[in-house]
């Protein structure tokens, strides 16, 4: 009896006026995220989680947010998946062209400024927070952050994405200048684990990469291998 | 107001004029107690997996317009090229047109370059187009194919984001289908096992989602060729038509007939020979 009453009076019934696609799937795909990058003498270490969400649904739990822009330059993407993929593609093309013209590997500063130019010019249309990190011959390992709005600033260590809010304290208290590559990797793993623990939009596996003059070393830390901080 | 006999060159780029017109129309119609017709959506379950010998794609066959099933035997697996097929979820018109456009472009490319198109190329074209239209094209696509670099499966979202993963489900029934896939997917599966898994995933979407239903289509793409099985499995819930809806000629009686000849004058006649040798 109650069921009949409900379906008769309520304008929306079980399969509502919305076209059978639930609200949570109608939102844009976002890399609500934790990304970070750390400089060390000889290179950089970058890290990211692997979760891409459409609203409350995890569209991809094994995303790779560390995107190569050039041989020794990477970017960490946060914000809208479509926007960051498009901007990264644009910059990859521009940087590749520039590098061929120069006939030498491009500078990280150049890559970062290319990101800034696109992100600032289209700041109203884009939702993209990017960390550019890499190694070049002139200045060694560098990290540049290009948050939403299109600012650019060079920092020795930088975090970004929705999960970054939870690890500023950890980053400030645990970062020491002059760490080795292994120490940086350990620092990043811990920071990502802490952020993924607290931020609902970050999770999955922790992807890390170390970029040096010799080349690139990628690592994946699976969910069950992440460091645990609480006994609960 | 534009005169009908003056040709207006269309402005370049995407034109958002009709969005505000549609919103205004909705407002007017609502005042008159009628609703604008909802676009036909393939509230859907589509899935794809990469197996040892190729790629298996699956889809249900229900297309809905609001709460009414508009098409019971809709084809959601679209042909892109001899080695690539694409499943589409979202607005039916958008998925149809986008995949048609992609297919045409790739055919031209093959003719120009003499190569078979690669899956990454198709994905990049789709991503480019959907990003340019800023989400106004409501198409969520699963593109699968086999080319010289291997077996590939990609998903392209309506805003232009891509994901490259070994198994996927999209549409309103994606959660149900993904549950099955997450449980039983293994890398490098045999073909028969893969077909069964995709069938089970779509079946689960059909059972648990109101927007999916009717039959299951499967498309198997391998190096040797494509096996498009439509339908792979028919729904057990088909019903029989109660009556015949075709009327025999003469059912409507003709009462009067009036013939008015149109007087046309031949003003000018030109004959041009065509060389068809």
Automatic annotation (TrEMBL), chain A:
UniProt record, GO biological process: immune system process; proteolysis involved in protein catabolic process
Compartments, as annotated in UniProt: Cytoplasm; Nucleus
Swiss-Prot/TrEMBL catalytic activity: Cleavage of peptide bonds with very broad specificity
Entry annotated with the keyword Protease: yes
Active-site residues from the entry: 33
Alphabetized GO MF terms: threonine-type endopeptidase activity
Keywords, alphabetical: Cytoplasm, Hydrolase, Immunity, Nucleus, Protease, Proteasome, Threonine protease, Zymogen
Any one Gene Ontology cellular component term annotated for this protein: proteasome core complex
Tagged with keyword Nucleus: yes
Domain of life: Eukaryota
Assembly description: Component of the proteasome complex.
Function, in words: Component of the proteasome, a multicatalytic proteinase complex which is characterized by its ability to cleave peptides with Arg, Phe, Tyr, Leu, and Glu adjacent to the leaving group at neutral or slightly basic pH. The proteasome has an ATP-dependent proteolytic activity.
Family: Belongs to the peptidase T1B family.
Protein name: Proteasome subunit beta
UniProtKB/TrEMBL annotation, chain B:
Proteasome beta subunit C-terminal domain residues: 240-271
Annotated catalytic residues: 44
Keywords: Cytoplasm, Hydrolase, Nucleus, Protease, Proteasome, Threonine protease
Organism: Oncorhynchus mykiss (Rainbow trout)
Subunit structure: Component of the proteasome complex.
Alphabetized GO MF terms: threonine-type endopeptidase activity
Listed name of the protein: Proteasome subunit beta
Record GO cellular component, one term: proteasome core complex
PROSITE patterns xref list: PROTEASOME_BETA_1 (PS00854), PROTEASOME_BETA_2 (PS51476)
Function summary: Component of the proteasome, a multicatalytic proteinase complex which is characterized by its ability to cleave peptides with Arg, Phe, Tyr, Leu, and Glu adjacent to the leaving group at neutral or slightly basic pH. The proteasome has an ATP-dependent proteolytic activity. The proteasome is a multicatalytic proteinase complex which is characterized by its ability to cleave peptides with Arg, Phe, Tyr, Leu, and Glu adjacent to the leaving group at neutral or slightly basic pH. The proteasome has an ATP-dependent proteolytic activity. This subunit is involved in antigen processing to generate class I binding peptides.
Biological process according to GO: proteolysis involved in protein catabolic process
Family of the protein in this entry: Belongs to the peptidase T1B family.
Catalytic activity of the protein: Cleavage of peptide bonds with very broad specificity
Name of one Pfam family that matches: Pr_beta_C
Localization terms from the record: Cytoplasm; Nucleus
Gene giving rise to this polypeptide: PSMB10(b)
């Amino acid at each position: 009896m109650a069921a009949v009453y409900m379906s008769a009076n309520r304008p929306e019934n079980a399969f509502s006026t919305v076209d059978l696609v639930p609200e949570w799937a109608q939102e844009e795909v976002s890399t609500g995220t934790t990304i970070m990058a750390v400089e060390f003498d000889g290179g950089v270490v970058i890290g990211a989680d692997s979760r891409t969400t459409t609203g409350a649904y995890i569209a991809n739990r094994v995303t790779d947010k560390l995107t190569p822009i050039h041989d020794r330059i990477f970017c960490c993407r946060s914000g809208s998946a479509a926007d960051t993929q498009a901007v990264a593609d644009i910059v990859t093309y521009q940087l590749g062209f520039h590098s061929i013209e120069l006939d030498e590997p491009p500078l990280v500063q150049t890559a970062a400024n290319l990101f800034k130019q696109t992100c600032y010019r289209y700041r109203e249309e884009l939702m993209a927070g990017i960390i550019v990190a890499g190694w070049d011959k002139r200045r060694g390992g560098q990290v540049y952050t290009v948050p939403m709005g299109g600012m650019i600033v060079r920092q020795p260590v930088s975090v970004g994405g929705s999960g970054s809010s939870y690890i500023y304290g950890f980053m400030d208290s645990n970062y020491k200048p002059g760490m080795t590559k292994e120490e940086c990797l350990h620092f990043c793993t811990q920071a990502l684990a802490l952020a993924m623990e607290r931020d609902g939009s970050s999770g999955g596996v922790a992807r890390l990469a170390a970029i040096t003059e010799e080349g690139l070393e990628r690592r994946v830390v699976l969910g069950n291998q992440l460091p645990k901080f609480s006994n609960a | 107001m534009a005169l009908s006999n003056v040709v207006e060159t269309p402005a370049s780029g995407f034109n958002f004029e009709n969005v505000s017109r549609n919103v205004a129309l909705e407002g007017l119609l609502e005042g008159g107690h009628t609703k604008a017709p909802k676009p036909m959506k393939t509230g859907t379950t589509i899935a794809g997996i990469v197996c040892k010998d190729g790629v298996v794609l699956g889809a249900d066959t229900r297309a809905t317009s609001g709460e009414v099933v508009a098409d019971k035997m809709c084809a959601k697996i679209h042909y892109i090229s001899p080695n690539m097929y694409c499943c589409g979820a979202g607005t039916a018109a958008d998925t149809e047109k986008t995949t048609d456009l992609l297919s045409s472009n790739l055919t031209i490319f093959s003719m120009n370059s003499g190569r078979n198109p690669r899956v990454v190329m198709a994905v990049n074209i789709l991503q480019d187009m959907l990003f340019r239209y800023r989400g106004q094209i409501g198409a969520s696509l699963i593109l699968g194919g086999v080319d010289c670099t291997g077996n590939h499966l990609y998903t392209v979202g309506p805003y232009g984001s891509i994901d490259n993963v070994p198994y996927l489900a999209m549409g309103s029934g994606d959660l149900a289908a993904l549950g099955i896939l997450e449980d039983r997917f293994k890398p490098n599966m045999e073909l028969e096992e893969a077909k069964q898994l995709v069938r089970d995933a779509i079946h689960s979407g059909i059972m648990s989602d109101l927007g999916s239903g009717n039959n299951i289509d499967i498309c198997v793409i391998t190096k040797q060729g494509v096996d498009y099985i439509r339908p792979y499995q028919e729904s057990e819930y088909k019903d029989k038509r109660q009556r015949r809806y075709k009327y025999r000629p003469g059912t409507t009686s003709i009462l009067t007939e009036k013939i008015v000849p149109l007087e046309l004058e031949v003003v000018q006649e030109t004959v041009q020979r065509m060389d068809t040798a």
